[in-house]
Amino acid sequence: xxxxxSVKNKIKELLELGGFRDFSAEADIEGKRISIFINEFxxxxxxxxxxxxxxxxVARLISKKLDPAIEDNLILDINNYRRERxxxxxxxxxxxxxxxxxxxxEVTLPAMNAFERxxxxxxxxxxPDVKTESFGVGPERHIVIKPI
Length: 148
Hints:
The protein is α+β, with helices and mostly antiparallel strands. It has helices at 3-17, 48-66, 81-103, 114-124; strands at 23-28, 33-38, 75-78, 107-108, 130-135, 142-147.
């Protein structure tokens, strides 16, 4: 059994201990991604980022406990919140790149966490007509997209 699969099983145990009954969890071993679907009630989307971050931290601690030699960068998602956020950020990056090309001026994106900034950089990396750079410190770190 892979480390990702083992972590998924431990998370399922934690959800059961937390009183959840109507949920499922899937592991994408190659993508090192664990997707949890909680069907019991509607989770408020404003608290999902915090819940996901907390669960991800627990997942990494479990992973490290199972095999200290593994440097697992697990990605955890709840009710497809993160997958939808990734799609929105990729669309934002493409729209900003189009605006840069039309106006021939750089565009500054709002502050994002490291994971979200990586999505923007990766989305636009193959484009020869724009370049991306990160600026700022801590929670104010953001990306500027510039024409080439």
